[in-house]
């Protein structure tokens, strides 16, 4: 059983926000008006944040720092602990998933997640003319759940799923081609699109995978490691 | 599956939580019902003599 | 002669207590109820709009995912602690002064709890899926603890309240002959054939004592569990062991202050000056002084620990409260909950109902603000995002309209209740529960004065 994990090399990241956009189209993230966005209601499963630079030297060197942030797919996720109905859950391969069909919209998980990666549908999702006819038709099969890129109803929480539907598709394709599923068959959209090739994805349990090897780098760190969430997204420091 | 796992899964998996709520409320309803009946029944026997 | 068929305790104030129930519904009632219904109507309209459009009509956003609704939830549950505190905890400690005000306080519990529950429903993104909590309930979630504790508390309060009301309903059934027939049938059904037999009173007292212990445990559990919804997350400042005791103390504090307000209104509106003497307010004043000091203690304990510890993410929230976006609220809260009321209590409160009410109103406004200031600032500076995104929150009219309608609903239920049931427990304040005469109908009024017992000592 794989343990999916992502490594993001901040040294390579150019903050182009390609991952954000790729994610948006892959996962049918609703678009909000500028007024709503100003209120802080935009939905970006993978958000790129400018970091505050401190000190005269940082300002003089005009070196902006950025942090791109998907869901950490924590091994010990606080969001799952607090969900009263099990609408968010960790599957066998360690991916923290979200079932739109069961979520009651209490927003406990959004409050509990220390990384702020969970987004709420304040209104019925909507797209601009033209965009609404080009939504990703991929769906996550199974148990009648509403997951992944499926159009969510208003009043539920959504979040990054490591493109879980791509995982399912990859397995189905391997099956159709009559071969074993290989870990390299499955790549989330942000990893695939990354302009600077700063993102790596793979099986953390496989000692030879890129992610395992990179996680041993001296530059490797995890966000809020002290929060005890054991994130499966590993960052590599700049420099 | 050992006992500890079973018990913790009762708390972690979706489903049993609702049963606990129903048991607590149902238990309370039963207790209160009989208490009320007991109070009202006070002194009945004497009256009948 | 044998014992009478139906016996009612002999209460010198029976006339005064039953008076508010006697007259038929009049224009004044209808005006009050109508007014409250209009306020509720606006809230209902606002809610329907929110239900159709989505929670976007509120001011909530990311990262401030919880706002006024959750504040209301905590506040109403806090108000609800008044009744249980006064009727259960004071019952256990044998404080006699509680008797005349026990019911007024319990009614407050009963009528504020449903609005606490409603607040949660209003806050949900998918209220239509509330049954999922039963179908897929996960007991690991503090929300389930809440769900269990609050439902059990609501249910137990109804029973506790009803049991203590039983003898008085029976009394209404037998004494109130002029009321409309539907009202009489209501009393008849609700009285469950109560006869007032000494054994019944005896058993009632025993059950009430037993339940008082249980209710005391529940009251502590409920508000602690409410606070754990916040405390169990690892968000800065929420995640503290103090949050439980602090919420509990605040709850009993605001609840007791609310009892003062309610008592003063009842006293005026229903001319219960003799039944609810100033002495009662003096007893409550002492309790409130203790609670204000307890509040100060908690406040200092919390903030000094934060300040001294100087943990960066906690300091963000700390400064949000003291000098940041919430500083005005924070300082208004401090003055309204503590500074002004304690001065009033010490220098003006004695024997003055007007001053007591002023202080109590301030305390309740302040406690609402306190809930707000405990909940929101943390959300504006969550653990990771405080350096990335800083949140802010301005409630919209929808939230205020719904809040107003919740309060209106509470007043409405309360005022309707007091028009149909005696708001001072007749049997508990009676001189004695023992039947002395064979025919209670022919009580000898002349003897009463001699047995008069001072109330509210
Ligand atoms: S980052 Fe947040 S949403 Fe993702 S698994 Fe961890 S706690 Fe849950
Ligand atoms: S908002 Fe949905 S996913 Fe989040 S805790 Fe509530 S029910 Fe669970």
Count of distinct structural domains of chain B: 1
List segments of chain A where confidence is low: pLDDT < 50 over at least 5 consecutive residues: none
Q: Evaluate the radius of gyration of chain A.
A: 18 Å
Please provide the ordered H/E string of secondary-structure elements of chain B: HHH
Q: What small molecules accompany the polymer chains? A: iron/sulfur cluster
Biggest pleated sheet of chain A: 4 strands, mixed
Helix fraction of chain B by DSSP (H/I, runs of at least 4): over 70%
- What's the SSE pattern of chain A? EHHEHEHEEHEEHHEHEE
CA distance, first residue to last residue of chain A: 34 Å
Of all chain pairs, the largest interface belongs to: A-C, 45 and 46 residues
Main sheet attributes: strand count, strand direction, barrel closure of chain B:
none
Tally of discrete structural domains of chain A? 1
- Indicate the CATH architecture of chain A: 2-Layer Sandwich
Q: Please state the structural category of chain B.
A: mainly alpha
Based on the structure, what is the oligomeric state of the protein chains?
Answer: heterotrimer
Number of helices of chain B: 3
What are the salient characteristics of this protein?
heterotrimer; B: 49 residues; mainly alpha; 82% helix; rod-shaped; C: 457 residues; Formate dehydrogenase/DMSO reductase fold; 16 helices; disordered C terminus; binds iron/sulfur cluster
What does this structure look like?
By secondary structure, chain A is an alpha+beta fold. Helix content of chain A is 23%, strand content 15%. In chain A, 45% of the residues are buried. Chain B has one domain. In chain B, 82% of the residues lie in helices and 0% in strands. Chain C is 68% helix and 0% strand. At the A-C interface, helix 4, helix 5 and strand 6 of A face helix 6 and helix 7 of C. The site of one iron/sulfur cluster has 14 residues of chain A, from helix 5.
